[in-house]
Fold this protein.
Amino acid sequence: MIQVKTTRFGEIEVRESDVIELPSGLIGFPELTNYVLLDHDKESPFKWLQSLQDGGIAFVLINPLLFNPDYTVEVSEAEVSDLRLGSEDDAVISVIVTMPSNPQNMTANLKAPLVFNLKNRRGKQLILNNPAYTTRHNVMEELKKRAAEIDASQAQQLIDKAKMEASVPLKEAVGGSKPAKVKATKKR
């Protein structure tokens, strides 16, 4: 067991098997290479990446697919070769979140995601060339946008369902076995 005094969590004990190695460190912290992932709390989508070498350094992480389901990390095999990924499924992607005093202004760094191979406990921070990704992507605005898209999609599904139900033959709507017939008569 490794014992670490941290600023946020007090003294923690970490099993050797839970240590995550980032051989290149993180941007701005190349000397810090050993970390552990800690839950923010059981129900939260956030995790803490706590440095084991400096108890005052911890980063808030989130799965970017939770607020940006189209997020993709496109890199060459050479860029992630040191992670020794057996397949794409072995990779877990997280991004660092900046939490200001007003949570509405929370941002995520989509430009420099962290890729972890949890099978061998190795990780790496990458820098993506995609101009659509920024270092300060507003998480709450993205969630609001996605919620509006979902609401619009659900509304369209309800409209489509209503149209289908309206076009159901009368016999099915009233439970009859023969379709209803309308007889037209001439008025005299």
Summary: DSSP finds three helices and eleven strands in the chain.
